[in-house]
Amino acid sequence: MKLRNKILSLFLSVIMIFSIVPITASAEATGGTCGDNVQWGFSSSGTLYINGTGEMYEYPYRESPWRHLENKIIAVEVSGTVSSISSYAFVDFDEIQAVTISNASVVVEEGAFDDCDSLSRVDIGSRGGTGGVICDRAFAFCRNLRTVRLYNGVEIIEGFAFYCSNNLKDLFLPMGIKTLERAFCQDSDVKITYDGTSAEWGNVVENNPDALLNLFIVQCKDEKLLPHGSCGDNLKWTVDFDTETLTISGHGEMRDYEGDYYGTYAPWGRVSSHITNVVIEEGVTSIGDYAFYGLGITNITIPNSVSKIGHGALYNCQNLSSITIPNGVRIIGRDFVSVSTEIVFQGDSNLWLSIVKNNGDSELRKYLVRCWDKTLWSVGSCGENVTYEMNLMTNCMTISGTGAMKNYSAGLGFRGVWTDFIDEI
C-alpha cells in the first residue's frame, strides 16, 4: 500500500511539472501573434519586430505579450501595413531608444509609448499612406526624446501627444499635416521643420488656433519663422531665440495684461526663458499693464513715442538694474518697476515732479530717479505747490515750493507722506 501511494505521489508530481512547463515557455516567448494578421518577434539584438496587416490587438494595461521583455527591448520596428499600435502597448519600457513605424496610415493609440525614459528618436510613415494619427499621450513623459520625424500621410497629432517630453528638440512635419493640437508643454523648446511654404504653414496655424503654434521656431521651405503674434491693434511681437530679444513693433497702444507670482500672462510669457532683452520700436505709444512682469530681462529700450507705462509693467524683473524713461512719458502706473531698479529719466527734475504729482505721488515718490539736472531720491507733494525730497544718502528731507503745506494728523495716527522714511530723517 505504501509503495502504491509513493508511486501515485510521484505520478502526480510529474503531472504538475509538465503542467507548469507551458506557462514558463509562454512567459519566455520571443514571438507570436498580436492581431488577426499581425505577428511579433524579438531578436537577440534587442529589437522587437511587428509585421503584418491591420490592427493590433488591445491588451489590458501592462499586459502586452512582450511585457516580460521590457528590460531587453531597445528598439521597436513596425513594418508592413500594421494600422494601429494599441493603447499602452509599450508603457514604461525604459530601455527602448528608437521607434520606427513604416506605415503612415497607422494610429498610435493613447499612451502607446508613454513614459519610455530612454526613447530618443521616433520615425513614422516612411512608406507613405493617409490618415495617420498620433493620439493623446502617445509619447508623453518620454524625457529623453530628441527627434521626431513624420512623413506624408500622418495627418493628425492630438493634444498632449508629446506632453512633458520637454527635451524634444526637432520635430519634422509633412506638408499634409492637418490637425496639430496642443501637443507639447508650453515651455517646450522644440524647433519645427515643415515640408511646405510659410503660407501653407500659416493655414495650419489658422486652422489650429488653440495649438499656440506661433510660439515655436518653424523652418519652412521658403523662410524661417520666429515666435510671433499681435499685442495691439497695430502692434506685433517677435522673439529671436539666438539673441534672446523680444521686439515690439508697429504703431499705437499695447494691450494690457495680467500677471502673478509665475510672471506675465502676455503671449511672450510662454517663451520667457528665451528673453533677456526687450526692444520697443518707435511708433509704440504705450506699455501695457504687466506686459513684462517677472521676466528675467537685463535691458529694455523704450522709444520717445511711448507716453504711458502701465501698472506692474516691469515689476519683479529682478535682473533689471536700471531703466531709462524718455521725457515723453506722462502716465506711469503703480508699481511699474521694482524699487531696486534705478530710474534714469531723460528730462529735468521739475518735469519728473510734475509726472509724480499727476500720477498720484504715493507710489512714484518711492523711486530713486536720476534726472538730467539732479538725482531725486524720494519725492512727492505736500501742498498744492509744495514738494518734498528725501535724500537717503544724507538723510535730509527738503521741502520747497510756494504756498501752504497740507495739514496732517498728530499722534499715533500720523501718516504724512514721508512716514516711510521717519527713521532716516
Outline the structure in words.
With 425 residues, this protein is mostly beta strands. It is 12% helix and 30% strand. The protein is built from four helices and 34 strands. The radius of gyration is 33 Å and the shape is elongated. The chain starts with a helix and ends in a 24-residue tail after the last strand.
Comma- or semicolon-separated keywords:
five-stranded parallel sheet, 4 helices, disordered N terminus, mainly beta, twelve-stranded mixed sheet, 425 residues
Roughly what is the average pLDDT, rounded to an integer? 87
* Envelope shape: elongated
Number of strands: 34
Structural class: mainly beta
Blueprint (SSEs and pairs):
Elements: H1 2-27, E1 31-35, E2 38-42, E3 47-54, E4 75-78, E5 81-82, E6 84-85, E7 98-101, E8 107-108, E9 121-124, E10 132-134, E11 147-150, E12 154-157, E13 170-173, E14 179-180, E15 191-194, H2 198-207, E16 217-219, E17 224-225, E18 228-232, E19 235-240, E20 245-250, E21 259-260, E22 263-264, E23 277-280, E24 286-287, E25 299-301, E26 308-309, E27 322-326, E28 331-332, E29 342-346, H3 349-358, H4 361-364, E30 369-370, E31 375-376, E32 379-383, E33 386-391, E34 396-401
Parallel strand pairs: 3-4, 3-5, 4-7, 6-8, 7-9, 8-10, 9-11, 10-12, 11-13, 12-14, 13-15, 15-16, 20-23, 23-25, 24-26, 26-28, 27-29, 29-30
Antiparallel strand pairs: 1-2, 2-3, 16-17, 18-19, 19-20, 21-22, 30-31, 32-33, 33-34
